[in-house]
Design goal:
With about 110 residues, the chain is of the alpha+beta class. It has one domain. About 45% of the residues lie in helices and about 20% in strands. The strands form two sheets. The chain has a three-stranded antiparallel β-sheet, sandwiched between helices. It has a two-stranded antiparallel sheet with strand order 1-2. A hairpin with a 4-residue loop joins strand 4 and strand 5. Helix 1 crosses helix 3. The longest helix is centred in the N-terminal third of the chain and has 24 residues. It is globular, with a radius of gyration of 13 Å.
């Protein structure tokens, strides 16, 4: 498996965990409230958290090649920073990593 695909797989694992968190928070949080999720960077050792609103989270999830990471956690050469602020960066995969992310996201959707 290519290194890019491994990075996408690692990030997809964090995305799946965060989607479960979001499902539980969805009914409890108001539109203005923020909730914490795990950084979706490629490092399996990263346990950092990110706080964002439901709208911010939904924007990230609007594209299966997008992930939310802590500032400075983007994987150069594999993804582009789409948006960033002092709390997080939204990155978009490209190339094989994007294909793997799309495949893994569609696989999760089909198995739900």
């Amino acid at each position: 498996m290519a290194a890019e695909e491994n990075l996408a797989l690692n990030e997809a694992l964090f995305r799946e965990t965060n989607e479960r968190v979001e499902e539980r928070v969805r009914g409890l949080a108001t539109e203005d409230e923020q909730f914490a999720i795990f950084c979706e960077c490629a490092s399996l050792e990263c346990k950092e958290r990110i706080t964002l609103s439901k709208d911010e989270y939904e924007f990230v999830r609007s594209d299966s090649t997008q992930f939310v990471v802590n500032p400075g956690h983007a994987a150069e050469g594999v993804e582009d920073v789409v948006m960033s602020n002092d709390r997080f960066a939204i990155v978009r995969k490209r190339g094989l990593a994007a294909e793997a992310a799309e495949f893994l996201d569609s696989d999760e959707t089909n198995s739900s």
